[in-house]
Amino acid sequence: MEEAEVPLENLQEHVHHSAEHSGAVWISWVALSTAILAVLAAIAGLLSGKNANEAMMNQIEASDQWSYYQAKSIKAAVLDAKMALATTSSDMDKEKTARYQEEEAQIKSEAEHKEAAAKSNFHRHEVYARGVTMFQIAIAIAAISALTRKPRFWIVSLVFGGVGCIFLLLGSIAH
Q1: Angle, to 10 degrees, between the axis of helix 151-173 and the axis of helix 91-148?
Q2: Bigger pLDDT: 15 or 28?
Q3: Buried residues in 63-85 as b, exposed as e (16+ CB within 10 A)
Q4: Which regions of 4-159 does DSSP assign to beta strands (E)?
Q5: Which of 13, 10, 37 is nearest to 135 (CA)?
Q6: Residue 43's Cα: distance from chain center in Å?
Q7: pLDDT tens digit string along 108-135?
Q8: What phi, psi does 100 have (nearest 5°)?
């Protein structure tokens, strides 16, 4: 689940270039804020990718556990059929049946735990990905601000950056 990369390096370079060659002091603040936004976007992107990978690993492990559960269920069913067809059941077969049932419960619990972990990690991935999107939008609007020399766009950029920060925080506390 890779995030689509939006090439923002050129925008950032242009903002920094504008800051150096402009007499307006606020343009320097735009340049500084875009650099901070780019760092936050990179952090959110890494966290998003990490959680996507964790979700995938948890889901694979859950699938493995469910396969193991099915194997135990088949063994138990075969043993039950054997005991049903036999005129007498051995104590060993009864013990195996009880052990298989106990193991199935443990395996099922582990599989469900892994599935829950996968859902949690995927949810965090989505929250961080939204943060990345907000930071990228903020950087683009900051570049528009520098290009058009209109400070109001920079304020809008900071609002989007703030929303990105909220997503970054929500991702760190999401379950």
Answers
A1: 170
A2: 28
A3: eebbebbeebeeebeebeeeeee
A4: none
A5: 37
A6: 13
A7: 999 999 999 999 999 999 999 999 999 9
A8: -60, -40
